Amino acid sequence: MWGTATAAHQVEGNNTNNNWYRFEHQKDSSGKPRIHNNDKSGLAADHWNRYKEDIDLMNELGVKYYRFSIEWSKIEPKNGIFNEKALEHYRELCTTLIDSGLTPVVTLHHFTHPIWFEDLGGFEKEENIKHYLEFSEFVFNKLSDLVPFWCTINEPAVYVSQGYFNGVFPPGKKDPVLAGQVMKNLLSAHVAVFRHLKTLPNGMNVQIGLVKNITQFDPLRRWHILDWYFSGILNDIFTNNTIDLLTTGDFNFYLPGMANISYKNTDAIGAIDFIGLNYYSRWHVKGHLNTATPFTFETRPEDIQTDMPYSIYPEGFYRAIQTISKLNKPIIITENGIADNKDDRRELFIERYLYALYKAIMDGYDIRGYFYWTLMDNFEWAEGYAMKFGLYEVDFTTQKRELRKGSLAFSKIVKQPGADKRGYIVSVGDQAPDLLLEYTNGKTVQLSDLLGQVVVLQFTASWCSVCIQEMPHLEKEVWNAYKDKGLMLIGIDRDEPLDVVEKFQEKVGTTYPIALDPGAKHFSKFAHINSGVTRNIVIDKNGKIAFLTRLFDKEEFQAMINKIDLLIQEQYQSTPFKRDS
Ligand code: FCB
Q1: Which of 16, 204, 412, 475 is the most buried (most CB within 10 A)?
Q2: Tens of pLDDT along 16-45?
Q3: 155 flagged as catalytic
Q4: Which residues, 6 or more positions from 114, have their beta carbon under 8 angstroms from its beta carbon?
Q5: Does the pLDDT of residue 578 top 60, yes or no?
Q6: Separation of CA 288 and ligand 1 centre (Å)
Q7: pLDDT of residue 526
């Protein structure tokens, strides 16, 4: 699943009834505005009115999924009073997406909630969870026929650390004990909503998950025990306690000398269908022998920085996938992106992070999707409009959107045919790409000239032991058995010079022709360039791919022979005998 992600308050505009609106209009205790540059979200990207145009942008990128959040304060402006018209807007958004070939993915809480809920104490009070449950039920009942993926809460640990520890998100508090309580309540709210929505109509047909931000806390100095100690503590309260709760039912929030909260909730065990992973970067932690400031965060001069205080650290993305895989649930990357006003690091970021993602998929991690943060420039919370995370640049005076150059790196990959688990980018039923092959004897053949015949392409190489094992079988059971019945078998040697290929052919003793493949150009039309050889591609008389093998599996090999046999019989019935000698 390729997608982009947004959040209601950051893009919709006219959100004047939530905790963030109030925060934007407040000053902190020293009289400074809460938001960078005293920005207000205001009209934002006017996505509420321009969503159709924005769906066109998604189509231009080639993505097929859209993650957005539902603004609770618009749906339930007063406690218990629901606004059907606002809900209707989101239904229209969903149907427009679906009509344009996109799948909606909904987030129920992305940092914002109505002022009345904040005034009741928000998630500081366990008894308020019921209000979030009522809102979620209302939305789910109205949209679950259209929305197959649901995110309950976006980044509880970010909401808590920014709102209750650093004081830069609403409610702007700095209270570690309260932070621990809010964390516990948010996770309880997730569990309650997950369990409840699962019982509603469509509950069992949709996937419901939690969105977890992972930001690693790494020791600044590898030799310093205090850096290690505080990194460990911070990783525990930011990430590990959520994983523990969802796997064992145990939750601990321990900050030495500041907070120590434990609780048990066995309902939490396994309470997700998938885990959403948001990843940006890591922090370097410096420990101090100072109870007032036990740790600080530092940046390293050698790191490439983005406009946010995040370095480009794709290895961390891989590590985060490893960490979250402990939950043993399908993983969806629900956010990943870069703030880059100059657009001079975006391409690098995209290529490196998507390489890490590719590695993780190839290593077997169960990753189902990737949502880029974000579609277009937006109101970046405490940073206001200063941060440019958009694939599209937005001119906030004219609301014009323009694709950034660096974003092409993303849409290029999105539009590339996806490789299957075996590395194939073609499938059975596809028209085989046309190739101009050059045999070791200098003769050339155009694949399309062989239309009317059954053709087997065998991808091989002299260093490939599995190929060497398989080739005598190809010689005997395919080439010798069917060459006189109209079959053509061509070996294609991956990126080796003529003399090496000739020796190889002699050594294995095969007699079917072998073609050269400099730079794996032919290979990469069928399989991902970095995937392995030992593949047979069976092509029917109409040039359509009929069978694909990978490695030398006896059963699969036999199934291929059976398929070839059928195709040859069909060929005999319809076309006169023809063979390339
Ligand atoms: C994540 C938030 C998202 C956006 C990005 C940059 O923590 O979920 O709304 O602000 O960071």
Answers
A1: 475
A2: 999 999 999 999 999 999 999 999 999 999
A3: yes
A4: 17, 18, 19, 72, 73, 76, 77, 78, 79
A5: no
A6: 29
A7: 96
